[in-house]
């Protein structure tokens, strides 16, 4: 883990200022309710013969985890509710109330659950495409939701009224905690735009127009009875804005935002890495890596942030209600620790990016289920992303009790992190960094976006007079074995009594160093970050032609730092290093972007991050960008500005 030679870590430097708080739009703490979550609710899938007698307490309290999302409750009730005899195509409200009363009474009897309601403050619920999309599909009672679409009954009215009464009846005020967020429908584009219609302008636009109308109608109906519930969408599976030279952005997300407007309280998205996707382009089967983590994910978030700011004058929050990995090669096989490792390593990397956007991310929920016995394959293999497995599933173990799968390593790794965010920086965008302090403890978090082991120099700054007592290190990675599927993730833990300056971070590894000092750590300064957005976005690239945008009303203090972020989408082989002038001065553009090369993606889409000299900054700034070749777009222009304010 630790490098022995000073010269071994000369290139990569990480500096931590424990006494300087880092605040983003007033947000300055690690919010475990937002970030350390699981895709589960309080009641379903916890029962069974567990090795731990009180599995909720062991997991939720033991690792300080918060409940995130469930999509089965709404669906289950709609499939069994009766039709209103006087309103064909609408649910019988009296039956919804009856079912809600029965569910509430059952919940009240289970008093052992009530203490966990504090872990449900940000709960997300949502509907599945079927049975909520009105297309004639009937429920178990033999009726279907109304497909009427006119001024008196806009498309989706029956769906919205059912959801509104469900929330009101199943979560009565003062009895059961109401969900904070509701996603109208889960991943609708799979059904609305079949493969043969993808990229076809008329087909895509028409589908999104209908979907947007549906979302707006449902949201309005929900708000009539539940004005405090936040409604959002469109719960997109793979938001590949850059496809078809950004026509995917135009047809789908841009149009959805324009049409739904203020009816949506938040945007809902899913992000997945594809570390082993099948590829038949060469005429024979091979596997490719299509990563989100790193620059691509940053660019995607910046696109939604900037367009939201340009359209509404504010950033609408984003709920990332699923993220981690689609492990195509290992999807439908028996449980394996290697597949769990793939989930955890991508979740670690994406979480670091979400943590770096606290002003726009409302929730981030890794797609880690509990047992999901409903998801077994026809061969009998269990669902792929489960927190629990049975003992016999691991080689060398026997018994059928439920125990933790290796997905628990995500929660074990992050179990202790809490406190105020403090200043940390790396001289390479391939190493993600975060740091927090909580009284006498400091947490330094490092993630390696590359597939190579990385040595680095770590400089943790803390004023004299507060001696270090120990460092506890958790290092998550997968030791190498020649056969890939035989590898598994581990958390290598060590406790040191002395400081260290040289470390090695394993390939795609995550390390959390917990420093314990003799006395509480004092905050002596604050680095206040504000992210500014350009006045224009999404500009086509033409060889030798300047793309100009402005970033205005920038607040500049006495001590200031800034990073310009340029989102670029281009075909492979095109230049990713434009000439950039900032207020007329040509500035140096780095030749690196965060993460591995995007060679296996359809095209490059990512953010280029450029440090800006403080002397170049003005309240109103003009940025010009010029490429030597044509093709693609400059998608976004944003700038992070950090003003350092001393406590005294």
UniProtKB/TrEMBL annotation:
Residues 549-642 form the Beta-porphyranase A C-terminal domain. Residues 430-539 form the Porphyranase beta-sandwich domain. Pfam families: BPA_C, Porphyrn_cat_1. SUPFAM superfamilies: (Trans)glycosidases. It comes from the Bacteria. Gene3D superfamilies: 2.60.120.1200, Glycosidases. This is Agarase.
């Amino acid at each position: 883990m630790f490098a022995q030679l000073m010269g071994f870590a000369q290139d990569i430097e990480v500096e931590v200022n424990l006494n300087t708080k880092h605040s983003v739009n007033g947000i300055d703490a690690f919010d475990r309710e937002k970030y350390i979550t699981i895709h589960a609710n309080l009641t379903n899938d916890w029962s069974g013969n567990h090795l731990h007698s009180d599995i909720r307490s062991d997991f939720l309290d033991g690792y300080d985890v918060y409940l995130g999302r469930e999509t089965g409750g709404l669906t289950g009730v709609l499939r069994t509710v009766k039709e209103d005899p006087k309103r064909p195509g609408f649910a019988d409200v009296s039956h919804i109330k009856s079912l809600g009363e029965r569910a509430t009474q059952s919940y009240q009897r289970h008093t052992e659950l009530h203490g966990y309601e504090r872990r449900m403050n940000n709960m997300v619920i949502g509907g599945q495409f079927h049975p909520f999309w009105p297309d004639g599909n009937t429920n178990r009672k033999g009726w279907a939701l109304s497909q009427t679409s006119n001024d008196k009954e806009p498309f989706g009215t029956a769906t919205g009224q059912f959801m509104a009464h469900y929330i009101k009846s199943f979560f009565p005020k003062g009895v059961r905690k109401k969900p904070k967020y509701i996603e109208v429908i889960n991943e609708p584009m799979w059904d609305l735009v079949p493969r043969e219609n993808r990229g076809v302008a008329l087909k895509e636009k028409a589908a999104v127009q209908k979907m947007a109308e549906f979302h707006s109608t449902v949201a309005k109906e929900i708000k009539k009875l539940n004005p405090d519930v936040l409604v959002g969408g469109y719960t997109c599976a793979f938001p590949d804005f850059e496809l078809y030279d950004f026509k995917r952005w135009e047809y789908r997300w841009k149009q959805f935002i324009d049409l739904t407007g203020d009816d949506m309280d938040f945007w809902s998205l899913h992000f997945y890495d594809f570390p082993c996707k099948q590829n038949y382009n060469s005429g024979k089967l091979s596997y490719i890596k299509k990563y989100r983590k790193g620059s691509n994910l940053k660019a995607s978030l910046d696109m939604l942030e900037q367009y939201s700011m340009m359209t509404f004058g504010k950033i609408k929050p984003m709920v990332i209600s699923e993220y981690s990995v689609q492990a195509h090669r290992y999807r439908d096989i028996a449980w394996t620790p290697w597949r769990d490792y793939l989930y955890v390593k991508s979740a670690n990397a994406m979480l670091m990016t979400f943590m770096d956007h606290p002003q726009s991310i409302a929730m981030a929920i890794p797609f880690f289920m509990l047992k999901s016995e409903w998801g077994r394959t026809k061969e009998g293999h269990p669902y792929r992303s489960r927190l629990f497995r049975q003992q016999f599933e691991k080689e060398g173990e026997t018994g059928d009790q439920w125990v933790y799968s290796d997905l628990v390593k995500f929660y074990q790794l992050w179990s202790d992190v809490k406190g105020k965010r403090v200043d940390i920086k790396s001289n390479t965008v391939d190493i993600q960094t975060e740091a927090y302090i909580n009284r006498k403890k400091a947490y330094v978090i490092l993630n390696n976006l590359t597939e190579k082991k990385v040595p680095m120099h770590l400089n943790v700054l803390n004023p004299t007079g507060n001696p270090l007592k120990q460092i506890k290190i958790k290092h998550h990675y997968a030791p190498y074995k020649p056969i890939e599927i035989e590898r598994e993730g581990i958390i290598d833990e060590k406790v040191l009594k002395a400081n260290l300056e040289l470390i090695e971070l394993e390939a795609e590894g995550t390390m959390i160093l917990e420093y314990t000092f003799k006395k509480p750590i004092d905050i002596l300064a604050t680095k206040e970050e504000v992210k500014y957005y350009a006045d224009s976005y999404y500009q086509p690239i033409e060889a030798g032609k300047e793309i100009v945008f402005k970033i205005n009303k920038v607040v500049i203090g006495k001590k200031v730092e800034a990073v310009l972020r340029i989102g670029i989408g281009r075909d492979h082989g095109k230049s990713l290093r434009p000439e950039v002038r900032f207020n007329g001065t040509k500035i140096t553009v780095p030749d690196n972007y965060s993460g591995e090369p995007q060679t296996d993606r359809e095209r490059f889409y990512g953010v280029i991050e450029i440090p800006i000299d403080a002397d170049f900054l003005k309240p109103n700034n003009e940025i010009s960008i010029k490429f030597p070749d044509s093709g693609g777009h400059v998608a976004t222009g944003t700038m992070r500005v950090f003003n350092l304010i001393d406590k005294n």
